[in-house]
Each structure stands twice: as C-alpha cells, then as structure tokens.
Design goal:
heterotrimer, A alpha+beta, B alpha/beta, C alpha/beta, A: alpha+beta, Ubiquitin-like (UB roll), Alpha-Beta Plaits, five-stranded mixed sheet, three-stranded antiparallel sheet, C: Glutaredoxin, Rossmann fold, four-stranded mixed sheet, globular
Chain lengths: ~240, ~180, ~550
C-alpha cells in the first residue's frame, strides 16, 4: 500500500492510498466538522459541512469522500470556509422545526454542538417552518421529522450494519423524508429488528427512545445491542 | 440609587419580558451575589424585577427576554429599541422564537380553536377583550428591530450573563463563546 | 497493431443500399410530423393530402412524413421539396394550395431561398430534419445514414476515430462543453472489460426542446453516433435515458432501435463485422436532476436518482461501476456528420475553442419560435433578430435567457456578442443545452429569477443541504422582493446566500441554481431596487402589497 504525504492547513501529514482527507485529518488531530459522516458506514458527501479547499482545484471538495493524493495541499480551516459552514449549519436549523429547549437530545445533539463550535448565535436566513410528522408507532422508538437533518445515518446503518434496510428515503427536495419500509408506519414494519442502531447514530433528536424526557436522550453511555434486548424483554416485546 | 457627586453617570440597564417563560430572568437572578457587583456599576431602571411602570428614555443596555408574538410585543419592542443604546436578545425565545415559535407551522386560527374551542365543554369562545391579538407568527426580536448582542440559551447560564454584562459595562464587545442554543 | 482487435475489422462487405426500382417522384410534399406540428393534427394533413392527391390523379407525387421543419411558430408546416415553398398553418380542410403547388412542380425547378430563418442556419446535427421520414431506416440510409459507421468499422481503428473526434473540436452539447474527444479517450483508456455508452436524453430545461426534436426527427442518427462512440471506447452496451414526457421521441426511438437491429446496424455482427453493440431505452420519471450524469447513472441502476460527488468520474467508474461514456443527444447526433465530412471540415466552422454548430430552441417573445442550428460564433442579434425575426409586436427587446435554470439573462447591450461557450460564461450566463428564451419589456427580471429559483427548488433532489434548503430560502427572499415585503437587508442576504449555494452545493444543479439571480442582479439591479425601495414593479408584472401597518 502506498503512502502519500500531503499538507492540511499547512501541517505535514501522511496517509495511505484510499484514505479520505477526513480520515487523515482526524488521525492528525485536525477537526473537520461533518454531520452526515460517521465512521463505520459509507460516506456520501451530502451535508457539505466538511467542504475543504484543495490547491489547484477551483471547486470545494467534501473531505469525507475525497481521497488523498500525493502532494495535495488542503485548506480545512479559513474564514471563508467557516462562513460557508456557519451558513450551512444555519440552513439546517431553519429547514425543519428545531426547538432545542424541548428536545430530547438537548445537550446531546451534534447539530447543537456544531452551532456552538461555529459561534452561531442567531439565525438571519428565512425560516421554512414546514409541517412535519411524528411517527410514534414503534413500541420502543419514535421519529420526529421536525428534527431530522437528512444525514441518512439511520438509512446507512440499518442497511450496512444491521442488514435490515428498513430505512430509506422518499420524496425529493424540501419534501424529502426518511421512511420505513416504503412509507408504512414504523411500528408495522416487518423488517425492523428493533436493534436501535438508527436511534444510536442519529445526530439530533429526530430518532429517540420513547420515555426519555427533554435533554435525557444521551447516547454516549448507552450500551449497544444487549441492553436494547433487555429493555425489549422488560417490556414484554 | 443616588449618584456620588462628581462621578460619571452610571449606565442605565433595563430588562424586558416579552413572550417567554421568565426563565431567562430567573437565570439573571442566579447571578446571586454577582448581582450586587453588577448593580454597583449600573442602575437597573426598568423590568420585572423593579417597580417602574413606564419604560424610561435613555437606556444604555436592555436585555429582552422572549419572542415577539403579539401586537403588544411588537409595539413594546419598537419603543424599547428607540430608547435603548445596546439591545440584547436575551435567551432562545428572543434569539430564535424557540417555544413560542412552535405554533408557527400551525397558524393562529387552528391554534386558538384547539385551545379555546375544541377542548372546552363550557361555553367555548376565543378570548378577545383586553388581550392583544397574536401576530400571524411568533418571531425573534431581530426580525423587527436591530439587535446589538445575541445571547442564546434556554436559559443562558448565569456565568454567561455575567460575562456579557461585565463586557458591556466595561465597554468591551461581548464574546459569544460558550453560548449555545438550548441548554 | 492497432488497439482494436482484428476481429472487429470487416469480414465481408455487403451493399446495404439497394437500387430503388421505382421512378423517383416528380414532386414531394414534406409534412412535418414532429411533436409541435403533430399536436396541431399534422398527421391528418398527411392523410388528407394523400387522398386529395390520389383523387386529383397525381400519381407522381409523394406525400412524405418528415421530422421537424424548424419553424414551429408557424405550424403545421408543409414544404414542397423541389421548390422549397413552405406552407404555414396548414389545416386538413384547406390543402388545396399545397396540391396545386405540387401539380405545378416541374423538372427544372430549383429550390428558392427561403428567407433568413432558413438561409442563415447551418445544419449538422439537424441536417436531416424535415427531409427524412423519422420512422424509415431506408430513408435515413438513402440520405447517407450509416456511411460514417461503415467507414469507422471498415477502415478505421478506434484510436483513429477518437483522434478525428478530438480534431473536430467537438465539445459536449449538453451544457458544460467538455471536449468530446478527450472524454472518449478517457473512457477508452479506463481499466475495465465492460464499458457502457449512455445517451443523455433527459432534457429538462424550461423552454428547451433540442434533444426531443432530434429524437423525433432523426432517431437513427443518434443510434449511429452512439455506435461509433461505442466502437471508439470499446463498449458493447448502450442506454438511452429519455424522459417519459417525450412519448413520441420514445416511440420513434423504439421503432428505430428495432429496425436497426433487424437490419444489422445494432446487435451482434454490426454491418457484417464482428463488432457488437446494442442499445436499450430507460425512461426517466420526470426528475430534472436525473440529467446530471451521476444521478442518471444511479437511476439506470434502479436507485434513487441523486448525484454523488465526483471523482470518481463516470469515465472511470460509472454505470455498475464500469467505465461509462455519457454524452448528450446532440453530441451523438453531430458525430456521424463529422466522420462523414471530416474533422477538419467541422473544425473550420465556429470560432476560438467553440467549433462547429449548435442547436438552439428559440422560445419566448420572438416571432419565429422554433428550432435552429447555427455556426458557433454567430451573434445573439443575428440569432434573435435575423433568424428569429425579432420581437413579437415590435416591442423592445429586453433580455435573452440562455442555459436554462443554471444560465443567465443577457441584456440588449450584449446582443452583438458572438455565441460561444466562453463568451456566454463571461456574460454571466451559460451555453447549457441550448434553450433561448427571449424576453421583451413585459417581463420583470426579478420575477424571471424567481421563476427559475422556484424550478430549482422544486427539482432539488434533497441530498445536499445548500441546494435543498438554500434554493428554497432564496426563493422565499425573491418572493418577498416581488411582493414588496423586502428590505435592503434581504437583498444583501440573497447575494450572500447565492454565493454560498453556488460554492458549496454537491452537483451542477445546486452550483448553477444561483446563476439567474446573479445575472439579473448584474444587469437589472435597478429592477430589484425598484421593488424594494419604491415598492413598484417596473414591468408591471408583480403584485406588490402596499405596506400595511402591522400595528392595530
């Protein structure tokens, strides 16, 4: 495997063939924000928070999907990039109906964290305020589309890790929604294994576990699958 | 609070409570003993915490809690803006409309129907007398008037409020570091 | 040894064009049966003409169904082949003058000039328009069809084909203008045993109908172009991705593919060589973004039609992760002529880096709406005023919108600009696929920008944040401006947002979406300001709400 040397923000770094800019940056302690990126599932370059400049290229590249090359000069942080990222974060807040104060993920939310990192203190862009639904038909979990940022981590983890492919996407543009099994209620899904991976990977409070109060949706200390099984047994499911 | 002879006039601070839960004012009270220090350096001339009926002229700093939701709110915020040098959007409702804004996708009429008609068994009616009409949507303060400082948080932590007031009273530009939406 | 295996060389030859036994007709009437005229019952005219001619005993007259005659505004059209006389707005009940003209045709007749609409055009991709029957393979072959393919398969190596295409200077006619020869070479050199050729017929720009016309009027040409491309890049399978909203184009393509397969122009052993290539049609379900190549590929693969970041480019990893050549309909349609007449002939047309000809769909407030093909470098004024016949009712010209939702509006000051890929970009617009919407003083430019933003917002696939959210927010700001609710701050925010959407979006749809806003701001900023500061619409299009005091 060949090793490439490159610079990120002027720092000399090295990585192997096939690695992305995001991976190499992470290994070298350079933090590039990203909300659709999650280690372990494939990247899609969609949230656009991880856009970086590459010397010699007129276009911005998404760090999560751009593979490194020998001699690449990457700018991951600049005033312009910060401005882009701040605006994109603002767009995500304005797209649906995010109300941190009453959200189960309050203080456990990657969107909230991103806003803080960007120094985002208020929103100037027009608020879209769509009417979005909540599907609480599943016995353990619920989805509040008002808080979904369409990172599609749930779709990918369900497909690539759990192998169930319960989640997918429907409609387009602003009407895009994640859906379970061709749009049937989650609780009626014959393919959902109730593993909870989608809830675990959701960066916001869109996917949450029922019965958790505001700001009690911490995912950090939750043991993964075995614990979910215990809960299911306790509830007689 | 009388002024010592020869000293420069102390900055005049006001607070305003629009469509919010008063939690931001509670957080202000959480400054505890630091309140004494702040109001050694400034006068509190108006707000829910003092008994003054009219919003005075020549206010230096005004903390505005709450979103602009009714015609009364709009009238007040415009008046406050006219009489204030530094206007602070204080807390998430003032900054983003937050919880009051949750009604926005629903619309005023369905909202009123749900609250006062559909779930009422005895003489259902929408109250109108002596109550300012709601605006079509609840909006953050900066959608109507210019805002000088934004301090998000639900509520903003007392430490952040202290730092901001300290900065403002010392003539520094407040730094938003550490402020975040929600908690 | 060339890079094409010897097996692809001709094994034996066969004369395809058989002698036509019958006497050629003395007079021929071309009846346009492309979508525009067909929608005005031009097929009834064909039938009626046949009856009337038979009744009149004119046995030596042919009534022929042809593709687009070009001047769609005046349809249904009938042309007398020998004299070039064009009958406009013909109805089935009044075919008398046509029949009389047919009866008058003499052996000595020569085609008379038909006026600037036709004379100033130079037809390459559309050379058979209004001449061949789009559903007749024999007719296409008779007019030189498949000659280029024969030459390629019998006398050339794939390298030579690519060199000729490169030398012709042909660039992608779908919009971006990527050099076709370079693309072909990249695909040919890419690693992989299986390669694909895809024809992008998912034409979706508002006001654009070039590809539809080509497919409806001369479908074999596209198949020939694709087959030549397949030979040049070593592909064996091809797809035509055509939008389902083009039923006539699809029907004619289907018929063309079937006939070409039967006659040995598609399938295995093409033209009696060992070269094999076959084409399938895939129908798009109406998503504009599926015209973006990576979204188109995803759609053919049966997945959601959303773009993905490039690289890898389709030329390296495209359909089913195999090297894939994607070209637009018009690009493929230009190839047979280039290889028949030679790359130098083609390269001599046009100016600078923009060689050859370009098909434009003239639409909007222009007299001669229709389909035109002109040499690159012709000025906008010639296209709109000489060919297009100027503005309807003699009103003042205001702007021409080129390039669809990713393009821009060009004002009167720049009418003398020669049309090339580069000049249009310099003017803040874009060649695009070739839509040209002409506007007069009855158009409000802010409203135009809002229209295109509404289009982009509606057609955004929803994958990346800036396009999904940003286009809607830009539309909301434009809506505020056109209804008189905006402030100067909204205008500044619009420009800020436009810059970010352009810079950070994932695919060309999002990156190009702010262009109509940028170009209208560049040339018509005063109209924006009139809406915002004076609360009036100079063109009288927008309904401005008078400022109502919110306070009770």
């Amino acid at each position: 495997m060949s090793v490439y040397t490159l610079t990120i923000d002027g720092k000399d770094v090295a990585g192997s063939d096939g690695q992305t800019i995001m991976e190499v940056a992470e290994e070298n302690g350079i933090d590039i924000p990203g909300l659709c990126h999650l280690e372990g599932i494939h990247d899609r370059g969609a949230c656009r928070l991880c856009v970086v400049e590459i010397a010699g290229s007129p276009k911005l590249a998404a760090a999560c999907v751009t593979q490194i090359a020998e001699g690449m000069e990457v700018t991951a942080h600049s005033d312009a990039l910060l401005e882009y990222r701040r605006t994109i974060t603002e767009m995500l807040f304005m797209e649906r109906n995010h109300v941190c104060a009453v959200c189960v993920a309050n203080n456990h939310c990657e969107l909230q964290d991103t806003a803080e990192d960007m120094g985002l203190t208020h929103f100037d862009l027009p608020r879209i305020s769509p009417k979005a639904d909540i599907d609480a038909s599943h016995p353990l979990f619920a989805i509040d589309h008002n808080r979904c940022i369409l990172c599609l981590r749930c779709v990918r983890v369900c497909d690539e890790i759990e192998g169930a492919h319960t989640w997918d996407v429907m409609h387009r543009g602003l009407d895009t929604r994640v859906q379970t099994d061709m749009g049937i209620p989650w609780g009626e899904s014959p393919t959902c294994t109730s593993c909870g991976k989608c809830v675990q990977v959701c960066p916001t409070g869109a996917l949450f576990e029922k019965g958790r109060a505001v700001a009690r949706g911490s995912k950090r200390r939750r043991p993964f699958l075995p614990w979910m099984k215990v809960v299911a047994e306790e509830r007689g499911l | 609070m009388s002024m010592p002879d020869g000293a420069a006039p102390r900055p005049r601070v006001a607070t305003v409570w629009l469509d919010g839960c008063s939690g931001c004012h509670m957080s202000l009270i959480d400054l505890d003993e630091r309140l004494l220090e702040i109001f050694e350096r400034a006068d509190l001339v108006y707000g829910p915490l003092v008994d003054v009926k009219e919003f005075p002229e020549d206010v230096d700093v005004c903390l505005v809690e709450g979103a602009v939701s009714s015609e009364e709110d709009l009238h007040r915020i415009r008046m406050v803006r006219e009489r204030t040098k530094m206007l602070v959007a204080f807390g998430d409702c003032a900054v983003t409309s937050n919880v009051p804004g949750m009604r926005n996708p629903i619309g005023v009429q369905p909202l009123m129907d749900r609250a006062y008609i559909e779930n009422v068994t005895l003489a259902p009616q929408v109250p109108t007398r002596g109550i300012p009409p709601l605006l079509p949507t609840s909006q953050p303060v900066h959608k109507f008037v210019d805002v000088d400082v934004f301090l998000p948080g639900c509520p903003p932590h007392a430490d952040l409020i202290y730092t901001m007031l300290d900065d403002l009273l010392s003539g520094r530009v407040p730094d938003a570091a550490g402020a975040r939406f929600g908690r | 040894m060339s890079d094409m295996p010897a097996a692809a060389r001709p094994v034996r030859r066969r004369v395809i064009t058989e002698e036509i036994a019958e006497e050629p007709p003395r007079a021929t009437a071309y009846v346009c049966e492309a979508a525009s005229c067909l929608s005005l019952q031009s097929h009834d005219i064909t039938v009626r003409l046949g009856e009337v001619v038979a009744d009149a005993g004119l046995g030596d007259v042919e009534i022929k169904r042809v593709g687009c005659l070009g001047l769609c505004a005046a349809g249904p059209l009938v042309e007398i082949a020998e004299t070039g006389r064009l009958f406009e707005k013909v109805t089935p009940d009044a075919v008398g003058p046509v029949v009389a003209a047919l009866a008058d045709v003499k052996q000595t007749d020569v085609r008379a000039p038909q006026g600037p609409f036709f004379e100033k055009q130079l037809r390459v991709a559309t050379e058979n328009f209004g001449r061949v029957d789009p559903e007749s393979l024999d007719d296409y072959v008779e007019r030189g069809g498949f000659e280029a393919l024969r030459r390629v398969l019998s006398d050339m190596t794939s390298t030579e084909v690519r060199e000729e295409v490169t030398r012709s200077g042909l660039r992608g006619r779908g919009g971006a203008g990527f050099p076709t020869g370079l693309k072909w070479t990249t695909v040919a050199k890419a690693q992989g045993t299986q390669k694909y050729v895809i024809c992008n017929a998912d034409e979706g720009d508002p006001g654009a109908f070039m590809d539809r016309s080509v497919l409806e009027s001369d479908p074999y040409r596209v198949l020939e172009g694709m087959t030549i491309a397949a030979f040049a890049v070593h592909a064996t399978e091809g797809y035509i991705y055509c939008r389902a909203e083009y039923p006539l184009a699809v029907a004619r393509l289907r018929s063309a593919i079937r006939q070409a397969q039967r006659a040995g122009y598609l399938g295995s052993g093409i033209m009696d060589t060992s070269f094999a290539f076959d084409v399938q049609i895939r129908l798009g379900a109406g998503a504009f973004v599926c015209g973006e190549e990576t979204a188109l590929i995803a759609s053919i693969e049966g997945r959601r039609g959303t773009p993905r970041p490039r690289p890898p480019y389709p030329a390296v990893s495209g359909l089913f992760e195999c090297p894939t050549l994607i070209n637009n309909v018009e690009t493929f349609a230009s190839v047979p002529t280039i290889l028949r007449k030679g790359p130098d002939w083609y390269a001599a047309i046009g100016v600078g880096k923009s060689k050859g000809t370009k098909v434009f769909a003239l639409a909007g407030r222009v007299v001669n709406t229709g389909l035109v093909e002109v040499p690159m470098g012709m000025t906008l004024r010639e296209i709109i005023f000489d060919i297009g016949g100027g503005i309807i009712d003699g009103r003042p010209f205001k702007a021409v919108q080129t390039g669809g939702p990713s393009g821009g509006c060009i004002p009167a000051d720049h009418l003398d600009t020669p049309v090339t890929y580069e000049s249009l970009v310099e003017l803040g617009s874009f060649m695009g696929s070739g839509g040209m919407i002409v506007m007069d003083d009855t158009s409000c430019m802010v409203d135009v920008a809002k229209y295109f933003m509404d289009f982009c917002r509606d057609e955004s696939c929803g994958k990346c944040t800036p396009c999904r959210v940003g286009t809607t927010q830009m539309w909301m700001l434009l809506d505020r401006i056109t209804t008189g609710r905006a402030t100067g701050g909204d205008l500044a925010q619009l420009e800020h947002l436009a810059a970010i959407v352009q810079r950070t979006s994932l695919c060309g749809l999002g990156q190009g979406a702010p262009n109509p806003v940028f170009s209208t701001l560049r040339y018509f900023r005063d109209e924006y300001l009139a809406h915002i500061e004076e609360r009036r619409c100079p063109a009288g299009v927008c309904t401005i709400e008078q400022p109502a005091e919110v306070m009770a």
